[in-house]
Amino acid sequence: MIAPFARSAAHAVPLYAIPAAAAKAWARRQAPLLAQSGFAGAAGDLRALPDARGRLKGWVLGLGAGDDAFALAAASEKLGPGTYRLGDVPPHLRGADGALGWALGLYAFDRYKKSVRPPPRLLLPKSVDSAEILRIAQHVFLARDLINMPANAMG
After folding, report:
1. Whole-angstrom distance, CA of residue 42 vs CA of residue 74
2. What is the pTM of this model?
3. How far apart are CA 141 and CA 136, in angstroms?
4. CA distances from 34 to 14, 40, 84, 88, 140 (A)
5. pLDDT of the chain along its 155 residues, tens only?
6. Which own/partner pairs from 152-155 qualify as long-range (CB within 8 Å, at least 24 positions apart)?
7. How far apart are CA 133 and CA 30, in angstroms?
8. Other beta carbons within 10 Å of 78
9. Which of the 8 DSSP states describes residue 121?
10. 90 - beta bridge partners?
11. Within 13 Å, how many C-alpha atoms sit on residue 75's CB side?
12. Nearest 5 degrees, angle CA 93-CA 131-CA 94?
């Protein structure tokens, strides 16, 4: 099993998750360059968040309607290696559901070809039981592996 969580990180990159209804106003306030890029908060839309000089100051994930409890899966699928922390995200993504979504987004069927890319890690909120999240993710990954396994390899 991968290690999708970190307990501490001095230089964790912030990750923001914004519903579509608030995306344009949020982008105008936080990063005019992001607003100019046409960010509308569509579900799964992940964009770099530049500062005034154009340097990376974080990432922003569009949530669409904003009701998906596992929306952070889209971010963990797309982000590169590194450690990330939750910035401005809706309350339902700050706890166990957000952490589970993050972990589930890291699934890869790697029985025949191992991944060489280290996974991104999320700075876990203190209230979340990482062992429980990892147990759930392992069981979901087992089910996904069984679905992806060729029938001739199941015997």
Report:
1. 12
2. 0.89
3. 9
4. 15, 10, 19, 16, 35
5. 567 898 878 889 999 999 999 999 998 888 777 888 888 999 999 999 888 787 889 999 999 998 999 999 999 999 999 999 999 899 999 999 999 999 999 999 988 888 888 899 999 888 899 999 999 999 999 999 999 999 998 87
6. 153/111
7. 32
8. 14
9. E
10. none
11. 35
12. 10
3-state secondary structure of 60: strand
Q: Cα(98)–Cα(66) distance, rounded to whole angstroms?
A: 12
- Give the integer Cα–Cα distance in Å for 17 and 98: 11
Angle formed by the axes of helices 96-104 and 130-148, nearest 10° = 30
The Cα 2–Cα 119 span in angstroms is 7
Residue type at position 24: K
Q: In one letter, which amino acid is 74?
A: A
Take residue 10 and report the two structure tokens written for it.
């001095």
